């Protein structure tokens, strides 16, 4: 299995970074590269460092890390929205978009500091010799500062997302309400490339996509400047902010390793945790919910004085705060019950955590983030369970992740009931996170999934280290 996962990452390597999937996702994606680096560190720490640094080299002047870095060798019609839609180097000039690299203008969850710390920890000597942490730390600080200074749209300390692509769970039912207010782009005004390589039954609907395009075009036409854009979609997402918290703690570790000041990062993490609980925790739901900042006042919003309104839909994003170290213990206990309760059924109805409420009216076991189980979400949940002392449950989940990854050919995501692979096969973060769990498994008792038949025999090939990045390409 290790050998097969390694071959996936070798096959998806472009020479400077790793694509999620050559056909469906032929460019570099932000949080994909963070997860990929976490797995690559077990094969080539130097290449894992390059994965992170290649992404951060496309960072904007205002600090944002764009969710796509486009490969100019890929034809424009291979993916939509393409570089000529985003027009980052021109439309984003005032926000500091790179002049020579085309990117998208929106962001994805801030997993990068956690990835950087884990990559460093895999080989601290090589990392120190190459100056890896010293190079990425200022960029990560700028990235977090962007989220804190430009994206606190609710004014209460949490980062808001301004497009459904930003929290990573693109077409979650949590966005149905906020998106309903968005006027769709005209039918026929663009061509979706994703349907060439993916089943329409698995992908977002045309109506959803038309709204995505409208939002992205609106943001672009305001120069990607957060203070000026109308942000007709603005949501505080618990998963996004939970990863922001974990990333601040990781940044504190990086600062300490460099002999710097770690306390400001811990203070921000603590403030984010407090705001997360205050604004997004729902005792009635037994989990965290999204807050729609553009919803009209009324209902709970009118009573709590927080602005906007909590979205009633339950998604796996509301369980990801388990990765936060200082979450109040009563909330942790409630989340642990919710994970295995009727809405998610982990360990009872399903073997991997679904992305959306099993009992929700919008549940769809096949359609993208509206029900299927995703490997990165389950990897994060496994980490959260372990952090809060749930070792047996974490071991069981890790075993199921490994079994599902091998059985599905490292699928993009799965039917949560049958385990049938959906979306792309040979998906990079699935292979990378399987490698991470396998590496941890090798240091302790073997989970049951390790008994699954390997896809190929023999030792895993070692990924060769990449050539040094020329100074001209490293950025400031």
TrEMBL record:
Organism taxonomic ancestry: Bacteria, Bacillati, Actinomycetota, Actinomycetes, Kitasatosporales
Residue ranges, compositional bias (Low complexity): 444-460
Protein name: Mannosylglycerate hydrolase MGH1-like glycoside hydrolase domain-containing protein
Region (Disordered): 444-476
Residues of the Mannosylglycerate hydrolase MGH1-like glycoside hydrolase domain: 25-430
Organism expressing this protein natively: Streptomyces smyrnaeus
Signal peptide residues on this chain, from the entry's feature table: none
Family designation: Belongs to the glycosyl hydrolase 63 family.
Keyword Transport: no
SUPFAM superfamilies attached to this UniProt entry: Six-hairpin glycosidases (SSF48208)
UniProt keywords, alphabetically: Glycosidase, Hydrolase
């Amino acid at each position: 299995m290790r050998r097969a996962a390694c071959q996936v990452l070798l096959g998806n390597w472009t020479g400077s970074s790793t694509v999620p999937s050559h056909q469906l996702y032929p460019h570099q994606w932000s949080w994909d590269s963070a997860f990929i680096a976490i797995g690559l560190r077990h094969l080539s720490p130097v290449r894992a460092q390059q994965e992170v640094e290649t992404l951060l080299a496309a960072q904007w002047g205002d600090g944002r890390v764009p969710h796509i870095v486009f490969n100019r060798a890929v034809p424009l019609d291979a993916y939509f929205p393409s570089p000529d839609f985003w027009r980052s180097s021109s439309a984003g000039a005032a926000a500091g978009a790179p002049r020579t690299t085309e990117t998208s203008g929106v962001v994805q969850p801030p997993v990068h500091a956690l990835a950087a710390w884990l990559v460093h920890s895999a080989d601290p000597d090589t990392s120190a010799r190459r100056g890896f942490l010293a190079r990425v730390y200022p960029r990560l600080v700028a990235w977090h500062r962007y989220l804190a200074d430009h994206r606190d749209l609710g004014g209460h300390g949490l980062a808001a997302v301004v497009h459904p692509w930003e929290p990573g769970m693109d077409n979650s039912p949590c966005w149905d309400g906020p998106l309903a207010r968005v006027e769709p782009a005209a039918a026929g005004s663009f061509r979706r490339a994703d349907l060439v390589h993916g089943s329409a039954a698995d992908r977002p609907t045309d109506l959803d996509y038309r709204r995505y395009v409208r939002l992205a075009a609106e943001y672009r036409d305001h120069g990607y400047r957060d203070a000026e854009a109308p942000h007709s979609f603005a949501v505080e997402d618990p998963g996004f902010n939970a990863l922001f918290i974990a990333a601040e703690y990781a940044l504190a570790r990086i600062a300490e390793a460099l002999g710097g000041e770690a306390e400001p990062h811990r203070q921000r993490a603590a403030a984010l945790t407090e705001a997360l609980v205050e604004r997004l925790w729902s005792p009635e739901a037994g989990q965290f919910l999204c807050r729609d900042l553009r919803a009209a006042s009324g209902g709970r919003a009118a009573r709590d004085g927080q602005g906007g309104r909590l979205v009633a839909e339950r998604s796996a994003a509301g369980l990801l705060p388990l990765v936060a170290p200082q979450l109040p213990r009563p909330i942790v206990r409630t989340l642990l019950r919710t994970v295995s309760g009727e809405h998610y059924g982990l360990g009872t109805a399903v073997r991997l955590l679904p992305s959306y409420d099993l009992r929700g009216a919008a549940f769809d076991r096949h359609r993208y983030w509206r029900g299927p189980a995703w490997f990165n979400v389950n990897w994060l949940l496994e980490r959260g369970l372990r952090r809060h002392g749930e070792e047996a449950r974490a071991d069981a989940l890790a075993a199921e992740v490994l079994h599902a990854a091998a059985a599905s050919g490292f699928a993009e995501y799965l039917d949560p009931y049958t385990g049938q692979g959906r979306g792309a096969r040979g998906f990079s973060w699935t292979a990378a996170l399987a490698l991470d769990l396998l590496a941890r498994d090798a240091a302790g008792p073997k989970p049951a999934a390790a008994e699954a038949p390997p896809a190929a025999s023999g030792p895993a090939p070692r990924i060769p280290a990449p050539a040094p990045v020329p100074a001209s390409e490293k950025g400031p």
